[in-house]
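Today's session is about reading a structure prediction critically. Students often jump straight to the picture, but the first step is always the sequence itself: look for stretches that repeat, for charged clusters, for runs of hydrophobic residues. Only then move on to the predicted structure, which in these notes is written as discrete structure tokens rather than atom positions. Here is the chain we will use throughout the hour.
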Amino acid sequence: MICPNCKSEFVEGVYTCSDCGIPLVDYLPAVDHEMDNPLQDVNFVAVYNPINSQEVSIIKMILEREEIPFHIKNDRLHGAILFSIQGSGKMELFVPEDYAQRTLDLLREELDHK
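Below is the predicted structure for this chain, in token form.
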């Protein structure tokens, strides 16, 4: 996990930067060489509530394929997602605000076919 602000790396199971207090992402998107720090002022917003670990896996595959940065939070487990636990609390999908509508469109299209 990586902090999109300070670029610090964290071990699996940590989902919030201890220095910046913002959600971590699985990876940083490709850097536009014309921008010094493309995620410096990124605002992550909640866009969807996955219903189970199977749906989380599908969402992760879709967003990684589309190179959309994301973070999934589980309120009951303080940010950790344990795929073996069913009914483990409300999950929330966070993406950068600029990707919110595109993410919702992709999820509507792809999850409706599942």
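Discussion point for the tutorial: Confidence is low (pLDDT under 50) at residues 77-87.
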